[in-house]
Structures are given as C-alpha cells and as structure tokens.
C-alpha cells in the first residue's frame, strides 16, 4: 500500500474538543486499594503447566519447569539472560522464536532513569492510501488538541499506565489500561495494550522485559522535578512484569513497521505479576475497566476518549494526556476491517492507550491507539469483536487465576 501521506500510530492532530463530560466523569476512578489476604498470595505461585515470568530467589532466577525447558531448547541460560543475555537480538533466532513469549523478571532493571530513556514505539508507521480507502473511510477529522489529565492520576484515570519493553533498538514505551478479569472478579492482573507494543509483527518476534507501570509519574512532575526522583514517585504502584502476552494472529502475521494488514488487529492482552508484593493489580490500583467487545459502528459508538502518555515531540512521555471526539470510520484498504478514527494530537508513546466510551452509565474500553499520521492530527484504533473477545477469554481462563 503506497500513499501520498505517511501515518504513524499515536500521533495526531487538532480539532474542536467535545464536551464529553459524562465520559470524563465516569473515568475519574479513585484508587481504593484493598488489603490482601493469605489467599491472594496464591496468585504468586507459578504453575508448572503455564508460561510464567521467572521469580527472584536469592538473587537467582527461578523459572517453572516448562519455561526452563523452553529456554534450554533455545539455548538460553536463565542466569545469563538475567545478567544481560536478553540483549542478544540475533535476527534469525528472533524470527524462529516468534511463537515463544519468554519474559523472566529481572528485578531492578526498569529503574526511573531507564524508563525515562525509553523511546516511543514507532512500529506502526503506516502509509495512508486515500484512493484505496474511498467509500470505506469517513472524511479526515479535524485535529483535537490533547489535554493534560489532572493529577494525581490515580484519582482521575486510575486504570491508565505505561508499558515498557526492550526491542532490538533499545528501551521502548507504550501505554496500557488495567482491565477487569471476568473470571476472577476484583482480582484482575490483566492489561490491555496494542499488539505492536508486545510483538514486532510478521518480520520479528516477541519483545522482551515487558513491564506495566500504572499511574506512572502520578503527580505529573516535570523533567526537572524528576531529576532525583525515587522509584515510588515514578511508579507509585510498582512494576508489573508480564508473565504472559497474547496478541492476534492478524497482527503477528500481517503487522509490520508500516502497519500493514495487521493494523486492524493491533491489540494485545498482558497477564502481569508484581515485581514485589502479592496482591492483584486491580486490588493494588483500586480500579479496572470492562472491555466492550460489541464492536459498535462508528455512528453507533457515541463519543470516545483516548488516554495515554505521548512521548514523541512536542511531548516527553512524562505526563498523561487525553483526547475526546466523535469517531469516524477508517480503513487502509477496502479488503480490511474498518477501524475507528478520532482527531487527536497525541504522538508516539500513546500507542496501546485505551479508548473509552460510556455504556449503560459506566466507562468501558472499546479500542486502543494503533496508528496515526506523521503530522499528528488523528488516531485510529481497531474495533474489538469476537476475535478480540476470544483472545481475552483465553487469557483470563488460562492464566487469570495465577
């Protein structure tokens, strides 16, 4: 697909901001973290039949037997991995291991300064073929200027956070949202983000050292104010390592650095566990959102809001922003599923951030930021239907209780 205009995920433009007061009011979720019980600690125990992140045990990596065997199959020594072996990005080997997500905990890896060094995940740069989309896409929306979220974030957008990971190009960053686990009410360890924030698509494999940080920089401090910030200021609820990640086959097979045929399937779910602690993510943060898998049409969906941490200029990734708009239809090709599109000036780094709408009086996640143009005037995100729900259900039933 060639086009007269390049587009990149999470960068957008400017338009008149809608007064979606209902959406903003409902999203303002105050964290009310609950105390954990002994029963809660069971979720920290690795199951030998599942893929879990490694635990820290006396300074050594402790990995369930199935993952230890998988690492050995790929010639990976757990201790070497922890001590820097994960930085070996042999391209051929990476491709062969694309089906295997292995993410051992490396305690202390994601320090505040390393998080600040992470660059936006610009893996969904895509070209917009206007002629191919005629009759499928609605007219391009007017830009909507992104608005800074009020602080502290845990009182105004508690489920939102940042997703950090390592790619062959170095530390990278996206955004993500704490979602409810229908099979484990009140104790969710699930995070929604974009597929390109966990997997490189058709030309690569799974990224490494995936961590979710809810309410990152909770008080919205400036770069100067964070010069000597400690870990609790940057990550008030700690670091949550993904012990499993799932994204769509559509993204794995069709996703590319130019978005490709995988853009409409650019979503992912993480199951996470705390680097330290025993309570679930939902209990710790005090909030989580349901996911709307009804895939309403753009005309039926009503107003939507996109939340995230834009990191590419003019933003620096330290503060949370949001855009509110009425969605339109967008497609890269008549043969691909229709996506949602809203006006928004957020840039790279907001990728994976949740899109929310009000359904039956409560805020639900309806999409996530995937792609957008290089002039940062709009964002597009996938419609979440049966395939997305099946991916979510499988993650919940298979790994949710761990």
Automatic annotation (TrEMBL):
Signal peptide range in chain numbering: 1-33
Biased composition regions of type Basic and acidic residues, renumbered to the chain: 38-47
SUPFAM superfamilies in the cross-refs: Trypsin-like serine proteases
Protein name as annotated: Secreted protein
Residue segments, region Disordered: 34-63, 122-152
Record carries keyword Signal: yes
Organism: Streptomyces calvus
UniProt keyword annotations, A-Z: Signal
PROSITE patterns: PROKAR_LIPOPROTEIN (PS51257)
């Amino acid at each position: 697909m060639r086009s007269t205009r390049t587009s990149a995920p999470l960068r957008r433009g400017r338009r008149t901001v809608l007064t979606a007061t209902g959406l903003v009011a409902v999203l303002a979720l105050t964290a009310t973290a609950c105390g954990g019980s002994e029963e809660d600690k069971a979720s920290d125990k690795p199951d030998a039949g599942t893929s879990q992140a490694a635990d820290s045990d006396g300074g050594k990596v402790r990995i369930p037997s199935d993952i230890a065997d998988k690492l050995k199959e790929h010639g990976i020594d757990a201790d070497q991995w922890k001590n820097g072996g994960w930085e070996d990005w042999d391209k051929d080997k990476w491709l062969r291991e694309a089906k295997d997500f292995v993410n051992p905990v490396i305690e202390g890896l994601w320090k505040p300064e390393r998080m600040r060094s992470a660059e936006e995940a610009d893996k969904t740069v895509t070209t917009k073929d206007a002629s191919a989309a005629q009759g499928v896409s609605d007219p391009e929306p007017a830009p909507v200027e992104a608005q800074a979220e009020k602080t502290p974030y845990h009182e105004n957008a508690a489920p939102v956070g940042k997703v950090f990971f390592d790619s062959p190009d170095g530390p990278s960053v996206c955004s993500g949202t704490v979602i409810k686990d229908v099979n484990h009410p009140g104790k969710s360890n699930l995070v929604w983000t974009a597929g390109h924030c966990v997997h490189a698509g058709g030309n690569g494999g799974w990224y490494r050292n995936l961590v979710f940080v809810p309410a990152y920089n909770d008080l919205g401090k400036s770069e100067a104010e964070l010069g000597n910030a400690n870990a609790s200021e940057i990550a008030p609820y700690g670091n949550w390592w993904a012990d499993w990640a799932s994204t769509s086959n559509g993204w794995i097979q069709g996703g590319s650095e130019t978005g490709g045929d995988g853009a409409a399937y650019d979503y992912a779910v993480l199951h996470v566990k705390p680097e330290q602690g025993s309570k679930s993510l939902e209990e710790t943060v005090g909030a989580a959102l349901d996911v709307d898998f009804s895939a309403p049409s753009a005309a039926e969906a009503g107003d939507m809001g996109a939340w995230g941490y834009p990191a590419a200029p003019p933003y620096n990734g330290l503060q949370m922003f949001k855009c509110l708009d009425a969605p339109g239809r967008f497609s890269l090709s008549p043969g691909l599923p229709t996506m949602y599109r809203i006006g928004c000036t957020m840039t790279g780094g907001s990728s994976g951030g949740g899109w929310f709408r009000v359904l039956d009086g409560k805020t639900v996640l309806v999409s996530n930021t995937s792609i957008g143009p290089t002039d940062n005037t709009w964002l597009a995100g996938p419609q979440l239907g049966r395939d997305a729900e099946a991916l979510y259900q499988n993650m919940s039933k298979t790994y949710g209780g761990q």
